[in-house]
Write a structure and sequence with these properties.
- The complex is a heterodimer.
- By secondary structure, chain A is mainly beta.
- Chain A is built from four helices and 17 strands.
- In chain A, the strands form two sheets. A 13-stranded mixed beta sheet of chain A has the order 5-1-6-8-9-10-11-12-13-14-17-16-15. A four-stranded mixed beta sheet of chain A has the order 4-3-2-7.
- In chain A, a hairpin with a 7-residue loop joins strand 16 and strand 17.
- In chain B, the strands form two sheets. Chain B has a 16-stranded mixed beta sheet that branches. A two-stranded antiparallel sheet of chain B has the order 14-15.
- The chains are: A mainly beta, B alpha+beta.
- The interface between A and B is medium-sized, with 20 and 21 residues.
Chain lengths: 271, 301
């Protein structure tokens, strides 16, 4: 099996919709067939050959690598069901949207709606993620439903909005409404958070490693020993490195809410 | 075959397929984990009357448990997955959920999942919380000392029950000392338990009885009281006390390793210590598919 490398020739004039360009699909095609695949560029369809130089290398499993500036390429890895995608630089909006399995690694930053409604697999962003990462798409009742999103930099607003299941770890800061309307799942944030964290959360966990935000009055502190559960959580997060690796030695404060809704969620303040 | 004066009979132990699971019980201190494990594995000597056979496999240091607290690994064996699931739920519900500070986790990597916290969570009366960590679902149930954490399921695997050694000794003191030495050596073998009190059973049984309602009755061929009375005895006049050690294990190799360790311990003590013969219980080889031949084990030792 070979790794397919797509190198951006020059930045396209308009945004390109990359849905359907997935490693398992490409692995079954010959290089000329891949080059003839078309994607939307604005309101016209372009062959991949017009946008990318193609190269193949030996690799393990189905793999797809993007090189160059993909800032105008949206929906990279959308609905991914297996295989690996690597993006050597930054990528546009909707990266990994509705992915179900496989892995996507972005070496730069991602635009908005990264990992929205993802249901499985792992999305790793070495830079920052824009607003609505792992959230619900407009009109949808549920955001992320499984898998794992790791952002080494910062995340924008509405991180994990309406998330239903899965894991999110943001090493840096997150914007306003982090974990808002959380239905269930786990969000860990290493740095600061914006206003209204966990607003309207029903169940699930928002863990803040350093931030000490003012929570809404609809959150109440609980006082009990939950060290067994805490060690399970902290040990798993420790595999992600700093700042999460220091959590094992701490005893967080626990707040429960949002009592305005179901009130079975928790905010863990580990600072 | 005679080793260090100890006669090893040309016979075999006959063992049966069972289903087993391993649970890891942790607590705030090793003492409380131990108390939960002792309670959980109580009244679990034989599937005939207890529903399962269970025992403490070993104590776990904090570095080996999922939550970094001291713990105990227990093995539970039953005749079917259904019965095993019933016993696990009842015993964990009554003996671990109730024990201060404990948490309970699956101790095997793979197998057919049976409920662990899945049913017990309802004790939380709606306040229970599920949490998936690294693909594993846990339940957190609020209790008066904090919360009870239980993994949702535990895998059940095929296992083997009924490996055994019979220690034939010249008197009670010698039989007990020999059995204790053998149990000490056998307890160190991983993936096995010795379900009887102190690992030892004195009421070995044969299949059937003169009473129609009894499926099993005393093993008269090994009863010193009956040596001069029954039609067929296995005993010679110098044998005055016989004790049995029963072994349940995850695999055939585990049971064999435990039996070998027991034989080695008795042989090392020698006939002068009072255990004169080692034998084993079987039913003619027709009932159980696993046969552990004593001489083969002794040769491999």
């Amino acid at each position: 099996v070979s790794e397919i490398v797509l190198r951006v020739k020059r930045a396209p004039a308009l945004r390109v919709d990359m849905r359907g360009v997935l490693p398992q699909r490409l692995a079954a095609l010959s290089p000329p067939e891949i080059e003839r695949l078309t994607v939307w560029h604005g309101n016209e369809r372009l062959a991949l050959a017009e946008l990318f130089d193609l190269e193949t290398r030996d690799a393990e499993g189905a793999a797809l690598r993007f090189e160059g500036d993909l800032g105008r390429f949206d929906r990279v890895g959308a609905a991914l069901a297996g295989g690996r995608i690597e993006v050597a630089g930054s990528v546009g909006d909707y990266v990994g949207v509705q992915m179900r399995a496989g892995a996507i690694r972005v070496a730069g930053s991602a635009g908005m709606f990264a990992g929205c409604e993802m249901a499985g697999g792992e999305l790793t962003i070495a830079g920052d993620a824009g607003d609505f990462a792992a959230a619900a798409l407009p009109g949808s009742m549920e955001g992320m439903r499984g898998g794992r999103l790791v952002v080494a930099g910062n995340a924008g607003e509405r991180l994990g909005d309406r998330m239903r299941r899965g894991w999110i770890a943001v090493h840096g800061d997150a914007g306003a409404f982090a974990g808002a309307r959380l239905v269930a799942g786990t969000i860990a944030i290493g740095g600061a958070v914006g206003a209204h964290p966990a607003f309207g959360m029903r169940r699930g966990t928002l863990l803040l490693a350093r931030a000490q935000p003012l929570l809404a009055p609809t959150f109440v502190a609980t006082a009990h020993d939950f060290s067994a559960f805490w060690q399970l959580l902290a040990r798993e997060l420790a595999t992600l490195g700093a700042p999460f690796d220091a959590l094992v030695a701490r005893t967080p404060a626990r707040w429960v809410g949002d009592l305005g809704v179901d009130g079975q969620g928790e905010v863990l303040l580990a600072a | 075959m005679i080793r260090n004066g100890v006669t090893i009979d040309d016979t075999f132990a006959e063992a049966f397929p069972m289903r087993a699971t391993r649970l890891v019980i942790t607590a705030h201190t090793a003492a409380w984990a131990r108390r939960a494990a002792v309670s959980l594995t109580g009244f679990a000597t034989s599937v005939i009357g207890c529903g399962c056979e269970a025992g403490i496999e070993r104590e776990l240091p904090a570095s080996e448990t999922p939550d970094g607290r001291p713990g105990v690994a227990v093995l539970i064996f039953a005749v079917s997955v259904k019965e095993l699931a019933k016993q696990v739920e009842r015993r964990v519900g009554q003996c671990v959920l109730t024990c201060p500070t404990t948490a309970v986790y699956a101790g095997l990597p793979a197998g057919e999942p049976i409920a662990l916290g899945r049913g017990l969570r309802f004790f939380g009366d709606g306040w229970q919380i599920a949490k998936v960590i690294d693909g594993v679902r846990y339940w957190r149930v609020p209790v008066m000392d904090g919360e009870f954490v239980a993994q949702e399921t535990t895998p059940a695997v095929k296992a083997i029950g009924g490996g055994n050694l019979l220690l034939l000794a010249r008197d009670t003191d010698a039989a007990l000392a020999g059995a204790e030495a053998a149990v000490g050596a056998m307890r160190a073998v991983p993936n096995t338990i010795l379900p009887f009190p102190g690992g030892v059973v004195r009421s070995g049984s044969k299949v059937g009885s003169k009473y129609a309602q009894l499926p099993a009755s005393t093993n008269d061929a090994f009863c010193p009281a009956l040596a001069a009375l029954v039609a067929k005895t296995e005993l010679t006049p110098e044998i005055r006390c016989v004790l049995e050690i029963v072994i349940d294990g995850i695999t055939e190799a585990d049971v064999a390793a435990a039996m070998r360790a027991g034989i080695e311990a008795i042989v090392a003590r020698g006939a002068a210590a009072g255990v004169l013969r080692i034998s084993a219980g079987n039913y003619g080889g027709k009932l159980g598919p696993f046969h552990f031949h004593l001489r083969r084990l002794a040769e491999a030792a």
